[in-house]
């Protein structure tokens, strides 16, 4: 097989030429890289002499499948992940092999896999801030199961909850999109943010100067709007925080612990005379 670069435009045109092609390709890919391949990869370490054959055969299947934006999946799946966790209400800083710095919070659980071609962080729950070392040859990817974020070198926050996945960018550019071959990601630059929830992928309000303020744990506010404080608490909240529009401009002063969102909101409710209630879907701030 030759080393000709994959022509994405031609592939997209081929898919568009017949409504059945997209469905057929997805079905074929699921069969090639589905449970059977996973089982084969799991037996890799127990079949020493067969390793080269398995890797080569899987790579051939990838090429036959069309090679659509594929990193060496076999190599990635065979890499032993490094797991990092942090307790609820605590913050943990981790330096990865390439110098990338991860800050974990809100009961975060991550698994890191590095290969010669890729850097992948699987975020199963919680919130992380990543300050990524630039490496043009190895894109850095965060996967949440529902979404993925791809960068070369930048700093950004990823929040994964049951209801949504949120991304905020401190510097550089990231691509944020829903998992799936044909879902188009959006590009976010410094101070921009987006959310993926049941309604889909959408930009949200800019986060100028506020990305991952929780890394300081305690923040002193002087006449800040309640809306701004809520935005800072949002990253480590177990549920999305909803605030009545009429309360957004209420002024707040004092020292607030961003790693304790519910406790701090309860204190603010007493101090500033609003109501806080918790539903299955959100923390709701409203007038009494």
TrEMBL record:
Lineage: superkingdom: Bacteria
One Pfam family named in its UniProt record: FecR
FecR protein domain ranges (all copies): 83-175
Record-level Gene Ontology MF annotations: sigma factor antagonist activity
Keyword Transmembrane helix attached: yes
Record key words, sorted: Membrane, Transmembrane, Transmembrane helix
Chain ranges passing through the membrane: 52-71
PANTHER family assigned to the protein according to its UniProt record, in alphabetical order: PERIPLASMIC SIGNAL SENSOR AND SIGMA FACTOR ACTIVATOR FECR-RELATED, PROTEIN FECR
Identification of the protein by name: FecR family protein
Source species: Sphingosinicella microcystinivorans
């Amino acid at each position: 097989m030759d080393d000709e670069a994959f022509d994405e435009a031609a592939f997209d045109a081929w898919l568009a030429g017949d409504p059945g092609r997209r469905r057929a390709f997805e079905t074929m890919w699921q069969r090639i890289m589905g449970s059977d391949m996973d089982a084969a990869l799991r037996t890799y370490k127990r079949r020493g002499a067969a390793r080269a054959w398995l890797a080569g055969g899987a790579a051939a299947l990838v090429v036959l499948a069309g090679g659509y934006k594929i990193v060496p999946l076999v190599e990635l799946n065979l890499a032993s992940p490094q797991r990092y966790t942090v307790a609820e209400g605590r913050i943990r800083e981790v330096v990865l092999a390439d110098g990338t710095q991860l800050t974990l919070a809100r009961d975060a659980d991550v698994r890191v896999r590095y290969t010669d071609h890729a850097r992948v962080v699987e975020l199963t729950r919680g919130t992380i801030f990543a300050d990524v070392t630039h490496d043009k040859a190895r894109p850095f990817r965060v996967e949440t199961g529902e979404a993925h974020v791809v960068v070369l070198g930048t700093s950004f926050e990823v929040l994964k909850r049951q209801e949504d996945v949120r991304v905020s960018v401190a510097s550089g550019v990231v691509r944020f999109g829903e998992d799936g071959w044909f879902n188009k990601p959006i590009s976010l630059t410094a101070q921009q943010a987006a959310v993926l929830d049941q309604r889909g992928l959408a930009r949200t309000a800019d986060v100028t100067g506020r990305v991952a303020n929780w890394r300081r744990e305690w923040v002193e506010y002087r006449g800040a709007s309640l809306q701004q404080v809520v935005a800072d608490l949002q990253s480590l909240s177990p549920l999305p925080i909803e605030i009545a529009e009429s309360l957004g401009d209420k002024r707040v002063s004092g020292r607030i612990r961003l790693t304790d969102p519910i406790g701090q909101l309860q204190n603010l409710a007493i101090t500033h005379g609003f109501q806080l209630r918790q539903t299955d879907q959100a923390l709701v701030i409203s007038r009494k």
